[in-house]
Design a protein that fits this description.
The chain has 177 residues and is of the alpha+beta class. The protein contains one helix and nine strands; from the N terminus they run αβββββββββ.
Length: 177
């Protein structure tokens, strides 16, 4: 009888050790999963994936003010189809004849009737941030850009331009002169 009491005590200890090992293993698996799903601790880095703003549609229009000033306005309809909010964007329009960006960061108008262009040459920041699933329309002046053959949007996340999240839209010849 003495012998069976000894074995009973050992099996209880083995059971607790296995329970602790399984708990620790599940904790490591959960931590690894959450680490991949939640952005890193370094807030100054653009996440590798999950940042995306697409151009749903665009139009190029010419308007004349009462004093005869001509405005060329690029209307961009954007959708945030990523997992993260976007703080802003850098916009570039290209001219394929030269192969270089003819204009970077067009003057931003917010809405067409908000007065003259502002923040020319600066990234455009959203207030509040552009949240996942949201749609928005932005108006930008493109008077000095020549013939636009392509539009590129580079989202800004955590204060950094996300170079890997560029959205490129070709523009048919003559659509945005």
């Amino acid at each position: 009888m003495m012998h069976s009491k000894k074995n009973k005590g050992v099996s209880v200890v083995v059971g607790y050790v296995l329970l602790i090992v399984i708990t620790i293993s599940l904790s490591v698996v959960a931590f690894t999963f959450m680490k991949r799903m939640i952005p890193g601790v370094d807030k100054r880095v653009c996440p590798e994936e999950g940042v995306s703003a697409i151009i749903s549609s665009y139009s190029c229009n010419t308007y004349a003010s009462l004093d005869g000033t001509i405005f060329k306005i690029l209307e961009l309809n954007l959708t945030n189809n990523g997992r993260y909010s976007v703080e802003g964007f850098v916009i570039r329009v290209n001219n394929k004849t030269t192969g270089i960006a003819t204009c970077t960061n067009l003057p931003y108008r917010g809405s067409f009737f908000s007065g003259s262009g502002k923040n020319a040459g600066a990234p455009h920041f959203f207030s509040p941030f552009f949240k996942p699933g949201e749609k928005r329309t932005d108006y930008l002046e493109y008077q000095n850009c020549g013939n636009i053959s392509a539009i590129e949007i580079l989202p800004i996340k955590n204060g950094e331009v996300c170079q890997k999240a560029i959205t490129h839209q070709d523009v048919p010849a003559g659509k945005c002169n």
